[in-house]
Amino acid sequence: MKKILLVMPKFFDYEMRFAESLSKMGDVVSVVYDENKFFLPRIHIRVFLLIIRFILSCVDCYWLWKKYYRLASVFSLRYASSSGFEKYILEHIPVKQVDLVVVVKGFGFSSGLVQEIKEKCKPERMVLYQWDIIDRFPQVIEIYSLFDRVFTFERNDLEKWRGSLYLPTPVDMTRIISISKELINKESPKIDFCYVGSFTFYRFFKLKALKRNLKKSHCKFTFILVTKSKLLSRIFPDVSNEVITETERVKLYLNSKYVVELGHPGQTGLTQRCLESFVCQRPVYYVGDYNKLSLDAHFSKFIFGRGQVAFSMEINDGSISEVFKGENNRFLDCYSYDYWADRVTNS
After folding, report:
1. Which residues pair with 32 in a beta bridge?
2. Which residue of 12, 79, 159, 260 is most buried, as measured by CB atoms within 10 A?
3. Which CATH number fits domain 2-167: 2.30.30, 1.10.3470, 3.40.50, 3.60.70?
């Protein structure tokens, strides 16, 4: 059995799911860290960055977002250098020798830290899974050459480092598929558009602008931005501090003709929301730079940009459902955790 060291930040339950999938390939030891502890700048810097982010949320200019990302990452790295991040990583590696080291994200890893991990663990191979766009954390590309293989979830980043490979972030669709099968014949579209996601000012202002356009077209819609803050939920419309369950999310999709997706600056791939929409046999209305989307052939005809939506479109014509039947369903395998683990360990 291979001995595998997994080093990555906490993010929902991804660290457990990644470790679980890798455990089918060998014995796994995980070093997991909290990014807020090591990369969160002091309060006055965070307030300063929040103000900039708030202003940029009102402006649709990716060049400015790139400048913001670089500035924010510089502040984060300055804090990491004094917070003991590298010392924490090295002290929490409980093994002396492994066959494979898998680093997820890699932001904050200096060339010195990578070399120390190599010297301590003596791995046969080191793999980096770049779990964010390079534009957001541009410094991470400086350590690419130290890894035997680099994967990225963003296709556009492939051209920034020759030899890197595309590997989408895994998504567990089991529950969504099960719920949608149970409800799909019980629910029918009552509104035109829906959206549910975590609150950010970027999303809030994007949805606010979309609402103005939809009202002019006399469309019905339901938008929900979820936050833990009771204050934000009282101040802003469409903001809720109530947890939205998977069943409630599926019901909302099935009650809508289209599911809205908000493209984040610089990201061009499919999101979990898009995949869930397709499983529920609902097309996606993409708010962002539609022409820069990087789509698989299976999906391209089910995502629409501004000016492409035909509000009279008959969504229950079976065209979407056919993608998820029989042999065609195999394309979802590339979004499974087992596929991710196999590529990372064997490529």
Report:
1. 8
2. 260
3. 3.40.50
